[in-house]
Amino acid sequence: EDQVTQSPEALRLQEGESSSLNCSYTVSGLRGLFWYRQDPGKGPEFLFTLYSAGEEKEKERLKATLTKKESFLHITAPKPEDSATYLCAVQANTGNQFYFGTGTSLTVIP
Amino acid sequence: NAGVMQNPRHLVRRRGQEARLRCSPMKGHSHVYWYRQLPEEGLKFMVYLQKENIIDESGMPKERFSAEFPKEGPSILRIQQVVRGDSAAYFCASSPRDSDGYTFGSGTRLTVV
Questions:
Q1: CB-based contact (8 Å) between A23 and chain B?
Q2: I want to staple B43 with a disulfide (CB 3.0 to 4.6 A). Which of A18, A92, B35, B94 is the partner?
Q3: In Å, what is the CA distance from B107 to each residue of A74, A107, B8, B70?
Q4: pLDDT tens digits, residue range A73-108?
Q5: Could you tell me which chain B residue has the CA closest to the CA of A102?
Q6: Using one digit for the tens of pLDDT, what is the confidence trace for B89-107?
Q7: With contacts defined as CB-CB under 8 Å, which chain A residues touch B4?
Q8: Per the CB < 8 Å rule, is A97 touching B48?
Q9: Quick check: A40 contacting B, CB < 8 Å?
Q10: What count of other Cβ atoms lies within 10 Å of the Cβ of residue B31?
Q11: Touching check for B105 and chain A: CB below 8 Å?
């Protein structure tokens, strides 16, 4: 069964304290792995798509990496405005739907 | 270029009533997806539509739920005879092609009282 597990569930960081969020996945043929950011009361906002092991994408303080079993979202020198829930999703070759994890709730303290 | 538009943002229905949720995809996007997010749970796929066609409804409950994406107008997710367990945030997403990352709307928060 295709599934996604994210850890930790919640993470509190001091401003400037770098860390990583983990997304482990099991999928019958990976079509793509997606990272989203979700703020309270809003829809998920697209961040990155990764398609193959070894691929990396960067955007401002965020960097996403992909292996055959997991993906990491690295946050360098975070700021309070980076506080949000970060969602990981995978799409399998065999279907159209995305399988989402339950997210990591990130709080960055000034 | 407006994003994915969902309305209403909040919807309150009594048990047994019908709920209609609307979604207008981004301009140029012909693929629409509906997801449901329950408290403390991840987003769960419900249905994938293209204009006038349901492509994949494997995540839709077999009864009371239906979806459409007509040739003209928004996509509609319809829930008949709502029950308390239907209370959730319902998100619509669109993409220009099947394999692209989605653009999500802000969601409709349904509360059944």
A1: no
A2: B35
A3: 28, 23, 8, 20
A4: 999 999 999 999 999 999 988 877 899 999 999 999
A5: B42
A6: 999 999 987 666 789 999 9
A7: 43
A8: yes
A9: no
A10: 21
A11: yes
